[in-house]
Every structure is written in C-alpha cells, then in structure tokens.
Amino acid sequence: MMRALWSAATGMHAKQLDMDVIANNLANVNSAGYKKSRVDFQDLMYQTIRSAGSTVAQGSRVPTGIQVGLGTRAAAIQKVFSQGDFVQTENPLDMVIEGDGFFQVLMPDGSISYTRTGAFKLDADGRVVTSDGYVMEPEIVVPDNAVSISIGTDGTVSVEIAGENEPQELGNIELARFLNPGGLTSLGRNLYRPTAASGDPIVGTPGLDGMGTVAQQFLEMSNVKIVEEMVNMIIAQRAYEVNSRAIQASDDMLATATNLRR
User: Fold this and answer.
1) pTM for the predicted model, two decimal places
2) Do 128 and 93 contact (CB within 8 A), yes or no?
3) Three-state DSSP class for 113?
4) Sign of torsion, CA 109 114 117 121?
5) What are the DSSP calls for 4-28, one per residue?
6) Between 20 and 30 A from 89 (CA), which of 166, 219, 239, 261?
7) pLDDT (tens digit, 9 = 90+) per residue, 148-194?
C-alpha cells in the first residue's frame, strides 16, 4: 500500500481539527473575555531507507540519507492570552484587567476557577457574582443601602451609603496570574482551572508584583480577529482539499499498477 494514502489521510484529519478550532473561535467572537485557540502541528515519524553518512563503495559516505515522512498530527491546542479590545459599558460592576491576571471565582465544589471576563453582577444577598452565580473570591458584599459603587485601579471596592458623607470600603479585589497560562484547562463559560503545566496561581494586589490594574465600567472583548480567522479557514480548507487530491492521485496510481498486463 502506498504511504501517500495514509500520509494524506493524517493531513485531512489534522485540517479537520484545525477547522473545528477556527469555528469555535468565530463562534465566540462576541464572547466577553474569550481567548482564541491555535492548533500547533508537527510531523510524524519517518521511515529511513538509507541513513545519512552510511558507507558505500570504496569507503566513501553518502552526504544525505533517504527518509520518507508519514504525515502530520496536532501537537497542541494553545490558548492565546493576548489582550482583547475594551468596550465602555457604564455598568459599575463591569471590570477589565489591564495587563496580566485573572479574576478568582469560587465554584460550587469549593475550588477556585479563574476568568478574564469581568461582567459581574449582584445576587440577592448583595454578593458580587458572575453571570452563572459564582461568587467572586475574595467575597465582596454590597449593602442594601449603597447608592453607588466605586472600584479603584488597585482593586479597592468602596460604596457611598445613603445619608453618610464618607464612602465605605468593602474590601479588595485580588488577581491571580500564572507562569504558563497556556497550561490552564478550559472549563467553558470562560473559566479556567490550573494544572501541573500552568503552575500554582500567584495571587496579589492589582498593579503590584506584575499584576495588571482594574478598570471599572469596561469589558474586555474577545481577542478573536475575524479577518485572521477567515484567512486561516481558507488555508485549512485548501490544505484539506489538497490532501484529498493526494489520496485520489494515489488511488489512481494504484489502479494503474493493478491494471498492468504482460
């Protein structure tokens, strides 16, 4: 059986995966805080027919060998954590991180997840929560008689209380960052969980120790660029088509060899 059949088939599988990732990026082009994914490919093993430097007649050595590659495969699907565009919303609980860092979110099982999406809201108890009702960590509780909410660039949360002249400080938002954010596991809902590859979270105050600062009344949009993804989609589609033609050409060659007569 010709190697080209199997090599081209791996190319079709790889480009199908590439198209799946591109489609997910395009589907989330308007998801606040979404970070695009990218597929990294690598070649498969090689079949060595003759090694480079092997000895031939009269002690001379061949300068190059003969190796035939056996296709390609996906090596990784990596999240790209570049900064997305900022959009002003006028909502006092909308926040963006200018720079490195993630908001911390308390999950129902008691674990901590991390997100770049700053579209926070208040629940019935006055706690700052995500759109899914997950509580921000550390917990911030806004009193019922609060007139306005102010969030400083260092994460300090203050409110004005009806009938009081001085604002009341409620607490501080803490951010977390990772040495290798690409190693985080995506949970959906723009949430991430650390792994052994990402390393342990480094928690700190916004604006200090490499953390980004917090800006109120803004949202970070997806970092997906539609034109870039469309170009990638065209490339993936053409590569898929070329690999399919390689399979067809290999099949035609096999048919020609099968029909040989004496």
Assistant:
1) 0.87
2) yes
3) strand
4) positive
5) HHHHHHHHHHHHHHHHHHHHHHHHT
6) 166
7) 999 999 999 999 988 788 899 999 999 999 999 999 999 999 999 99
